[in-house]
Amino acid sequence: MSTDQNFETGLQGSSNKVAEFDNHDASFLKRFQHALHVTPSLVPLIVLLISLIIFGVLLGSKFFSPFALTLILQQVAIVGIVGAAQSVVILTAGIDLSVGAIMVLSSVVMGQFTFRYGLPPELAVACGLACGAICGFINGWLIAVMKLPPFIVTLGMWQIILATNFLYSANETIRSQDIANQAPLLQLFGEKIKVGGAVFTYGVIFLVLLVLMLAYVLRHTAWGRHVYAVGDDPEAAELSGVNVKRILISVYMLAGVICAFAGWALIGRIGSVSPTSGQLANIESITAVVIGGISLFGGRGSIMGMFFGALIVGVFTLGLRLLGADAQWTFLLIGALIIGAVAVDQWIRKVSV
Amino acid sequence: MSTDQNFETGLQGSSNKVAEFDNHDASFLKRFQHALHVTPSLVPLIVLLISLIIFGVLLGSKFFSPFALTLILQQVAIVGIVGAAQSVVILTAGIDLSVGAIMVLSSVVMGQFTFRYGLPPELAVACGLACGAICGFINGWLIAVMKLPPFIVTLGMWQIILATNFLYSANETIRSQDIANQAPLLQLFGEKIKVGGAVFTYGVIFLVLLVLMLAYVLRHTAWGRHVYAVGDDPEAAELSGVNVKRILISVYMLAGVICAFAGWALIGRIGSVSPTSGQLANIESITAVVIGGISLFGGRGSIMGMFFGALIVGVFTLGLRLLGADAQWTFLLIGALIIGAVAVDQWIRKVSV
Amino acid sequence: MEPILKGRGLVKRYGRVTALDHCDFDLYPGEILAVIGDNGAGKSSLIKAVSGAVIPDEGDVYLDGKKVNFHSPIDARNEGIETVYQTLAMSPALSIADNMFMGRELRKPGFRGKFLRQLDRPKMEKIARDKLSELGLMTIQNINQAVETLSGGQRQGVAVARAAAFGSKVIILDEPTAALGVKESRRVLELIQDVKSRGIPIILISHNMPHVFEVADRIHIHRLGKRLCVIKPDEYTMSDAVAFMTGAKEPPTEKNAA
Amino acid sequence: MEPILKGRGLVKRYGRVTALDHCDFDLYPGEILAVIGDNGAGKSSLIKAVSGAVIPDEGDVYLDGKKVNFHSPIDARNEGIETVYQTLAMSPALSIADNMFMGRELRKPGFRGKFLRQLDRPKMEKIARDKLSELGLMTIQNINQAVETLSGGQRQGVAVARAAAFGSKVIILDEPTAALGVKESRRVLELIQDVKSRGIPIILISHNMPHVFEVADRIHIHRLGKRLCVIKPDEYTMSDAVAFMTGAKEPPTEKNAA
Amino acid sequence: DNHAITACLITKTDTNPFFVKMKEGATAKAEELGMTLKSFAGKVDGDHETQVAAIETCIADGAKGILLTASDTSSIVSSVQQARDAGLVVIALDTPLSPIDAADATFATDNFLAGELIGQWAAAKLGADAANAKIAMLDLAVSQPTVGVLRDQGFLQGFGIDLGDPNKWGDETDARIVGNDVTAGNEEGGRKAMENLLAKDPMINVVYTINEPAAAGAYEALKAIGRENDVLIVSVDGGCPGVANVKDGIIGATSQQYPLLMASKGVEAIKAWAENGTKPALTPGKDFFDTGVALVTDQAVDGVESISVAEGTERCWG
Ligand SMILES: Nc1ncnc2c1ncn2[C@@H]1O[C@H](COP(=O)(O)OP(=O)(O)OP(=O)(O)O)[C@@H](O)[C@H]1O
Ligand SMILES: Nc1ncnc2c1ncn2[C@@H]1O[C@H](COP(=O)(O)OP(=O)(O)OP(=O)(O)O)[C@@H](O)[C@H]1O
Ligand SMILES: [Mg+2]
Ligand SMILES: [Mg+2]
After folding, report:
1. B16 lies in a domain?
2. Which of A55, A270, A324, A332 is deepest in the core (most CB within 10 A)?
3. DSSP A201
């Protein structure tokens, strides 16, 4: 060892213990704060519960009935499914403005392939799902390989897909009665299971399963971890061995497929195939995602948060309507409550650090 | 000096020259590339010129007339003004979804204060501008002080302001003839200057002056540099002495005031005061900003780029219509061309590094 | 003598992690105080707490004997405390000159500066270039380069130059030579001596023992979030200091030995 | 002997800045090659060019005598080249364990790993903790902490531990001890010796001359974007090396002296 | 309690003055009859998912009946059925559902007829020149919501142009049509669309507009190039500003509809249903209750029935 290093003799006998401090976290409050900190999706859950309670108190059994509560689930099913797609994309620091358009085009494909070309509904559904996957692939390819900004790519694709939808469908609505008679499979997600007053559609069940599955995949598989890493810092992810392109393309394709499922669920919900649906899916899905605490800058947040976020909006909407607020007042109050919900979220997070 | 440092004696006589390499940048092409690199707004300018030339060749004098070219300017005037507000916000890594709503509410305030309360138009205009400033201040306060995400704040404010607009105006339109008779000041921005076949409205002139002024302020004042610093890395900006809160609030207030001016210009353009205007201002202004090369992640890009971005969309829209594309096809092609324009942009940038 | 900057009972917790654990701190006028300690001992947290970059959970900071409540680094800067943070705190997309003058830009004289509020770029660029030359950062080829295009060491050089140029009361340097080359490190040490000779006290965090023992008047040894002891470099050897800070030896009993 | 990793005529330009100017480079099997040079000399650019992180404008890279075209760091990793970049390349919001195993995650055995593709978190966490303990990074209190909450030195420790754990052919370390404390630096040097004794060659970029002269077999001196000369630490003194790299002295004429 | 009867009004949007007035009329009537009225609306034209949610909300709320202007006339049918199954009476206002008997009753104007009237008027006004007219079609949105298609196709039919597929606009091949563009039904869109079509052919002399705000915008564009006096603008709606514009010669003729009548009739029908379970009667000979449409112009032409501006002003709605 060179003489320059002789001060290092002082190292002999240095401590090898892990640093430890008094554990200040004994109290319930502290433990609660810590729980909030490590599980960020608890925050929107709490906001959700609080708003449920408030509306419950104000409205009584009109709101706190199994019927009304499951109605909220049905009303958020489509937004929730699209929001799941949006969440995965936003976790990579992207954004998908074409979700609504993909959803509608896929549902139109399912409908028209059955009725215009006479394909068996199973095959038409498969074509619809493939259509979603293709749209997603184009998004992903442009973003990952051509390195174009997601916002612009999906903005352009939104217009392209929507226009294609209008041109292809010739604005024809396929009527509910016809579907029920000839291809009930298309309405599968509209089937109901009744438990007492509670009504669960297959669409709602699909949403819950989808969210649980994505939560598992994002948390417990390598692919999921890579999604977070790409959203966090794509350069660092690339340098540390993540195939960023492959992840991005797979994310946008997955989003496309989920949107196609949303399109299928949409047929179940409204009964018919209508090319003018889904115009608000973008903004509503993004709202759900952000209220759910997923950062638009990527890499932070959980899909459960999105689910609670969508429910919060659903609860506010139904609650305010039942309270008798008219449409513009409802918009106004929902605007205020969106800001309020996020403010509460921020506040709880701050307390919990 | 301790003996450990004796290797530093090697430093004596070390070179003090600035590193220099052969200058490879002699050729025109290289110098051009360098120019592109240091002036990013050149890229959308080039895309704009290319698209002008292509449509000019395809359409001849129908397109290359002073009338058609200045018509494009008139058509982008509102989007351009709102885009200027949006640019400043996006430079701070924010986003303002409420621009369109602020614009409409301000124009309604100007109109209703004149006609409902009989204020002199000058005062009503001042009230409209103040209304814009207040909306902007609320946005800025929530974002800077309450530390809420800009997307959510302005999403909520969008709904709140729009609902207020409809509730306050009771959806009443004030007719162009009434304004022309009683308060022509409100239509000021609709006044025209004709130079040969070219028609310049005051609105267009205002847009150009606004862009030039903002370009100056952003580039040559401390406030402008701070806007970039905040967008780049707000934490670093704070640590290095920027009053991040003050900058953010001032940025959103400025955006609000500019939107109010846009509302005034809107009255000039459509003649009347209509609470249903401006529904597309958000998406169109963001499109202009992003095509203009301003990063949605803040801190990069220039306001001139936004101006060219708005013009690119204007040129495409009018050019395609003149080529005979119908409304749906135009919609589709504009989607494709948005992606195309940004792809060209990326490509030029890559070549130029 | 009254310390110019003093901390008492500072506590800072991050979730379950305790970065500062009732830590005391003293800086006397005109001295160079080195702060040494293991990685994660809480050195950066300490200087952030005294420079306004984080607000401590408990404890007080005194400047010139008066209690101060810094709410942001700007407050500290206005009192003349200039800090080079370990993360450097620069805006990557802006130029070197822009970064050096961030928050204290120079305006053109006369009408253009007063009413158009135009910046005096040539002057700022000239000063920036001079300050960097003083530090011997000759490999910077273009003063208008964006900071993100600089090498790690160049970036650090810019941050140090900024602090040295503007600090008037206290200068805090958090590992200023970590990424610097031999020549550039030497310049920074010379600069530190230089600043000291102007009567401004300096806090220097460093892992480089030879540097620390060369320039420091007193050495604050930090361990597990608190001040373990303060020693004078001429009374102890480097190997003692290393032994204290790593817990291999017991520190001298009189805590404020030096 | 054939170099295991070789660069010839590498050029990399960033706009007007020339970071690599027809640079050559050789790493022989089993050796520790130090790369030294001023800040901004182009050391980081050089190792990025040979590890796939940037694609050089001109010039070729050879691995085991065969020309390779790395398009991304993953290509280089697949060939067994593991790199610690100066910027560390970590995902701030993810945990230490997640970062260490990024791109090479371990899956649970059996059904859950094969079909559900479930990660084996306990195992990854255990390995991560072991690797960090080997480096003496004892102050890390929680292996599931997000990397962004670590101190600068702790972060660097994690990056070094990752490279040492997974490199099989070449390990490249860009200033691995810049932010490390005395104890931790010593551990890294020991680790380097350790890796070498496993027969894996190492490229070490460092500004710390004592460290360089202690561990290096050969020293590549980089100046103004090219290799100035290569020396053996036992043939020249530290002060010679510093003089060469700063341009104070002419380098030995036979370029490949060592 | 008198307010025990709750009725719902669900409109396409609540930003279009037409629906705003409809709501005002319904609210006033409900007040008069001592009922509670809750109103809902889609966010944009064509937004039928929000309407579905609104129907569900009304069911949950225990309303007795729903007044509905459907954004998508066939998509909404299954939700309407759900409401009827739950014991609510559903009355389609303004726009019939498809099939029309999906609702308990329909109080509507015929949008196709409204278009047809202005088409006939324009053709008659031009006389022989109608054969070489240059027509600009200012429509609602690229998504082609039904109301826009009906008015557009009605106009073309009235003008004597072959429709192609009557369920969509833009597929006509007649050379007299310079082009279709979309306006979003407001002034801004009207002006821009008009400018685009004028750039295509500056000699346009007939302008069909989806509604009166779009017509006002189109007029501004024409004024900007000094052609406001030699172009015929026709429109649909009959709101008070629109009728005033007819008076000022900005719009040549407009088809007036009667939202207040629809709304008040509808509210009365719900009250009747709630109190004694009677369903409203239909206009004899039609499968809906026709609230009527009238052409408002001061330049009456032969063969097209019209009312004067003075009369139109008396009956206008907002
Ligand atoms: N923002 C933060 N969130 C959570 N924990 C943090 C944060 N900042 C620091 N810590 C923790 O606080 C402890 C002290 O960190 P600090 O940066 O002060 O150490 P340091 O002495 O400066 O170390 P180094 O020499 O490596 O820079 C570390 O354990 C670190 O993990
Ligand atoms: N992405 C980039 N864009 C532009 N210039 C760059 C970029 N990366 C490096 N440079 C420039 O290239 C030159 C070499 O940088 P490099 O990082 O290779 O130096 P280095 O020898 O590693 O320095 P240090 O010891 O400070 O880390 C510097 O002048 C730097 O400014
Ligand atoms: Mg530190
Ligand atoms: Mg380097």
Report:
1. no
2. A270
3. E
Tokens 């609104």 -> residue: E54
- Cβ distance A338 to B156 less than 8 Å, yes or no, reads yes
Residue type present at position D59: G
Domain ranges (residues) in chain C: 5-93+146-257
The number of folded domains in chain B is: 1
Cis bond before residue E99 (omega within 30° of 0): yes
Give me the tens of pLDDT residue by residue for chain C, a chain 258 residues long. 789 999 999 999 887 778 899 999 999 999 999 999 988 889 999 999 999 999 999 999 999 999 999 988 889 988 889 998 887 788 888 888 889 898 888 888 888 888 888 888 889 988 888 888 877 665 666 788 888 888 777 788 888 888 888 888 999 999 888 888 888 888 888 888 888 888 889 999 999 999 999 999 999 999 989 999 999 999 999 889 999 988 888 888 754 444
Residue B89 lies in a domain: yes
pTM surpassing 0.80?
yes
Say whether E214 sits in a helix, a strand or coil: helix
Locate all alpha helices (DSSP H) within chain B, ordered by sequence: 28-38, 42-59, 66-91, 99-115, 121-144, 150-169, 176-182, 202-220, 222-232, 234-239, 244-270, 281-291, 303-323, 327-352
Q: How many CB atoms lie within 10 A of CB B38?
A: 11
Best to test chain D binding among C16, C38, C173, C209 (most D CBs inside 10 Å):
C38
Token reading at D204: 């070490």
Q: Which domain holds residue A118?
A: 42-348
Distance CA A249, CA A254 (A): 9
CB E179 within 8 Å of CB E197? yes
CA–CA min distance C140, chain B (Å)? 7
Looking at the complex, does the CB of residue B78 fall below 8 Å from at least one CB of chain E?
Answer: yes
In C, which residues are within 8 Å of D182 by CB distance?
207, 209, 242, 245-246
Report yes or no: B321 and E198 within 8 Å, Cβ to Cβ. Answer: no
ipTM of the shown complex: 0.85
* B62, B63, B65, B67 alpha-carbon torsion, rounded to 10°: 100
Biggest alpha carbon–alpha carbon distance for chain B: 92
Is the C-alpha dihedral spanning A230, A232, A233, A239 positive or negative?
A: negative
Q: Is B79 exposed, middle or buried (0-12, 13-18, 19+ CB in 10 A)?
A: buried
B positions 105-164 inside 8 Å of E (CB): none
E188 close contact with B: CB closer than 8 A: yes
Helices and strands (H and E) in chain C: how many: 9, 10
Listing DSSP states for A272-298 in one string gives: SB-TT--TTHHHHHHHHHHHTT--TTS
List helix spans (H) across D52-135: 73-78, 96-100, 110-114, 121-134
CATH of the domain at B301: 1.10.3470
Judge residue B315's burial from the number of C-beta atoms within 10 Å of its C-beta, 0-12 exposed, 13-18 middle, 19 or more buried. Answer: buried
Residue A27 lies in a domain: no
Q: Is A321 helix (H, G, I), strand (E, B) or coil?
A: helix
Contact between D49 and D7 under an 8 Å Cβ cutoff? The reply is yes
Report whether CATH 3.90.1200.10 matches the domain D5-93+146-257: no
C174 torsion bin: left (phi>0), alpha (psi -120 to 50), beta (else): beta
Chain-chain contact of B275 with E20 (C-beta, under 8 angstroms): no
